[in-house]
Prior knowledge:
Helices cover 33% and strands 17% of the residues. It is of the alpha/beta class. Strand 1, helix 1 and strand 2 form a beta-alpha-beta unit. 54% of the residues are buried. The structure holds flavin-adenine dinucleotide. The site of flavin-adenine dinucleotide (FAD) has 42 residues, from helix 1, helix 10 and helix 15.
Amino acid sequence: MPYDAIVIGSGHNGLVAAAYLARAGRSVCVLERSDVIGGATISEHPWPGWTVSTASYVCSLLHPKIIADLDLTSHGYDAYRKPAAAFTPLLDGRSLLLTRDAAANAAEIAIFSQRDVAGFRSLETERERLGALIFEALDDDEPSFESFDRSAQDTMLGSAADFVRRYVQTPVLQAESVNDGLIGTYAGPESPGTAYVLAHHNAGRAFGVQGAWGFVRGGMGAVSAAIASAARAAGAEIRCGAGVSRVLVRSGRVVGVALEDGAEVSAPIVLSNADPKTTFLRLTPRAELDEAFVRRVEDWSCTGAALKINLALGELPNFTCRPGLNAQPHHSATLHVADSIEYLQTAYEDARAGSVSRAPLIEGYMQSPTDASIAPHGKQLLSIFAQYFPYDRDDGPWTTAQAEGAADVIVASLARFAPNLPNAIEARQILTPLDLERRFGLSGGHIFHGELLPGQIFEHRFSTRTPLRGLYLCGSGTHPGGCVTGAPGLRASRAVLADLAVRS
Ligand SMILES: Cc1cc2nc3c(=O)[nH]c(=O)nc-3n(C[C@H](O)[C@H](O)[C@H](O)COP(=O)(O)OP(=O)(O)OC[C@H]3O[C@@H](n4cnc5c(N)ncnc54)[C@H](O)[C@@H]3O)c2cc1C
């Protein structure tokens, strides 16, 4: 019996699409190549007693509409707001800690510059305004960047560095503030369009607060598990270890998929949660796509430069600037090491010059001080997202020795501020962009299914409806792009249901 629809991939977006289709009474089957659901939104147990958000690790953009529609809370979704925002230790013994307390932030910034106190407030206001504009458009069926006011457009087309410099002058505050413009992006703080990336990372409205980020109890896999539970409750079927080898087409329209083991599954509608390069260059018969479209997919900018490390620690990092082995607010803040925009620009230029960053961008998170369920008693988990470690090294594909070397550089960089760190490490997991491609099917190791820079955002991202009748994209290659938003899946389900309504 054919299904009404097949979803290729159980990333959180594929699951969202399946859940909405099933709730609308359609028979849906999700086919996932991996043995586990969730794609890049996953919790794993690499070491006994530890629960690790292997890839994505913090949550902000998951659309409140999806949380409500699918009643994710009753399916186990439980997020809480990160207690502190950001922390940068400095080598001179000072540090910058930004929390949720505006008065404390003002006092902290005033140590560096009285003028920047007001400047930072203005920066926050504008960041929230831009984030809110994107939030309102997250699930637009026909996204239009050009519908934004001229000043918002001009700002977001510019660099994160220019945006931040407009408001604050303290180098470490500038560095902390541009960081969101670089995450997941193979571009530097001076690169045009990184202000958009910064705004995108402030587009979430978790806990009803614009730009707030939080942790999910049990790690990010709990997001996928909750969506999968909602999808199953509505009747969707989810099969793991079922890699799709190609989309089947008859007389110009989709009739199902072939699996890697040779079996075929029939449906007149196929939604692909795989990224655009995988979907159109590997899974779709070439003859079904015209040359210009194929060229567009080939030209899609999708080279990842992010490396993820998860560290099992025997104790918390003891920062020289804020000593102590007990959990303190800075341990729960996003950890950075860059002391200036120049530091980050050099990290980027190093990689572009043909290798990797010698002094990398580092973003660290510790969920264990506020969620005892993810590490054994008395132990801590430090997750690190670092750039720039590009997928396409000049000296050939990533080797294990190079991955270990990169991790050593990152740990050494952090040890300048927390000398106990190297000896506190009990185990480590390293994922280079090549590992991200192999583990999660992310082409080029790109965490967003392709750069989120102007030229690849809003109306310039791939459309949900593809040139092949019956084939839809439901992953991050479509608007609004990467991050755990669920919006591409929601938009795809709406497009499918609208098309089915026209047909019947
Ligand atoms: C290291 C890292 C850190 C990140 N950090 C964060 C973060 O903290 N917060 C945040 O919001 N976002 C973060 N992101 C980005 C975010 O995780 C992704 O943008 C998002 O999870 C993508 O979801 P998706 O459903 O669109 O696709 P994916 O999660 O990529 O899912 C696609 C699915 O399709 C499957 N698939 C592919 N090909 C086939 C096939 N042929 N047959 C069957 N199945 C197939 C894959 O196995 C996968 O399960 C991070 C990503 C990475 C990699």
